[in-house]
């Protein structure tokens, strides 16, 4: 193996840059030529490829986003699109491809490997933490830190006005950001897709808190359940006197300087991706499980199911009484 490529695909996440830096620097350290593919699979099809040097990844470990940009590509979902992508890889002599992205990007990698024999290694990068094979994805920790920073600020003003606040967080169909940020931010109520939603239970808890003399009610809502506005309307129908506001955190959760944890796991995963390619391994997804960097066959990884941490959810309920 002489030349490898790296791309970021799907939703961006803080820490992707740290992973790119690790792939490039570990690749060069091991005598490889490393090429950066811009704009994910679409940039690959369009032949947007640049040579990476040690300095092209200088000064990026602390930056959110991805210097390689990211994109979604409908063309790559077609056989013809993937054939074009394989041709471009061949033209540049790229023998191994590192894909930093979510499970959609990994499905694309699986097809590229199966149809064209491309050596692919996947690194999980998404703030949603919804990839089954890994305990943590790159970007999740930073997104949770951003969310608790917002919760802290909203709590200050909620307490002053003795208000209730709904804070809608991201996570797509998963409730990980809501659960972790809600627990770490001391939220009174956490609403996530993994647990059946019961509006009466939510309102009873708010009423109980008011009787108990609570000065604020922080309700962390995962976007996969409903919007903050919808929940606000449902609560106000039942508790019309409640002073209630809602805030949607939105894309601030996707940006910002990556946390220590995200920088460290991204660096380890990027390094492992290069090692695997040098060991002539292909179609692997890198994960962190029980604090160890591990890798699985892509078919096995994509077939895994994530066990939701219900114990943590139960704990959040006990601690928020
Ligand atoms: P993520 O990787 O964050 O889950 P997406 O699901 O949007 O994000 O996937 C990113 C890109 O990966 C898509 O735009 C598409 O080019 C490619 N992709 C996703 N799913 C598939 C699939 N089933 N087959 C081929 N390519 C796919």
TrEMBL record:
One of its GO terms (molecular function) is fructose-6-phosphate binding. GO terms for biological process: canonical glycolysis; fructose 1,6-bisphosphate metabolic process; fructose 6-phosphate metabolic process. Allosterically activated by ADP and other diphosphonucleosides, and allosterically inhibited by phosphoenolpyruvate. InterPro entries: ATP_PFK (IPR022953), ATP_PFK_prok-type (IPR012003), PFKA_ATP_prok (IPR012828), Phosphofructokinase_CS (IPR015912), Phosphofructokinase_dom (IPR000023), PKF_sf (IPR035966). Homotetramer. Its EC number is 2.7.1.11. HAMAP family: Phosphofructokinase_I_B1. This is ATP-dependent 6-phosphofructokinase. Substrate binds at residues 126-128, 163, 170-172, 223, 245, 251-254. Transmembrane segments: none annotated. Belongs to the phosphofructokinase type A (PFKA) family. ATP-dependent PFK group I subfamily. Prokaryotic clade 'B1' sub-subfamily. Keywords: Allosteric enzyme, ATP-binding, Cytoplasm, Glycolysis, Kinase, Magnesium, Metal-binding, Nucleotide-binding, Transferase. It holds the Pfam family PFK. It catalyses: beta-D-fructose 6-phosphate + ATP = beta-D-fructose 1,6-bisphosphate + ADP + H(+). GO terms for cellular component: 6-phosphofructokinase complex. Its cofactor is Mg(2+). ADP binds at residues 21-25, 155, 186-188, 212, 214-216. It is found in: Cytoplasm. Catalyzes the phosphorylation of D-fructose 6-phosphate to fructose 1,6-bisphosphate by ATP, the first committing step of glycolysis. Mg(2+) binds at residue 103. It is an enzyme of class 2 (transferase). The active site is at 128 (proton acceptor).
């Amino acid at each position: 193996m002489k030349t490898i490529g790296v791309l970021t695909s799907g939703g961006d996440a803080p820490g992707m840059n740290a992973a790119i830096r690790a792939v490039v620097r570990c690749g060069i350290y091991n005598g490889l030529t490393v090429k950066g593919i811009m704009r994910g699979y679409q940039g690959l099809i369009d032949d947007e490829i640049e040579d990476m040097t040690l300095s092209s990844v200088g000064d990026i470990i602390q930056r959110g986003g991805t210097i390689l940009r990211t994109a979604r590509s409908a063309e790559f979902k077609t056989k013809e699109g993937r054939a074009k992508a394989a041709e471009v890889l061949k033209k540049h002599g790229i023998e191994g491809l590192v894909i930093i992205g979510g499970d959609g990007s990994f499905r694309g990698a699986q097809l590229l490997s199966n149809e064209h024999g491309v050596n692919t290694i996947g690194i999980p990068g998404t703030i949603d933490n919804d990839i089954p094979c890994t305990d943590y994805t790159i970007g999740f920790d930073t997104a949770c830190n951003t969310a608790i920073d917002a919760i802290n600020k909203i709590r200050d003003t909620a307490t002053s006005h003795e208000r209730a606040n709904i804070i809608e967080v991201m996570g797509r169909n998963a409730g990980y950001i809501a659960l972790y940020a809600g627990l770490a931010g001391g939220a009174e109520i956490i609403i996530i897709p993994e647990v059946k939603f019961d509006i009466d239970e939510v309102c009873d808890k708010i009423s109980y808190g008011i009787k108990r003399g609570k000065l604020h009610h922080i309700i962390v809502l995962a976007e996969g359940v409903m919007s903050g506005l919808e929940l606000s309307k449902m609560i106000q129908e039942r508790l019309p006197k409640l002073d209630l506001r809602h805030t949607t955190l939105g894309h601030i959760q996707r940006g910002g300087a990556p946390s220590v944890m995200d920088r460290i796991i991204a660096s380890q995963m990027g390094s492992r991706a290069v090692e695997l390619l040098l060991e002539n391994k292909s179609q692997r997804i890198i994960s962190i499980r029980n604090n160890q960097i591990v890798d699985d066959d892509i078919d096995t990884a994509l077939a895994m199911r994530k066990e939701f941490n219900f114990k943590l959810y139960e704990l959040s309920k006990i601690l928020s009484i």
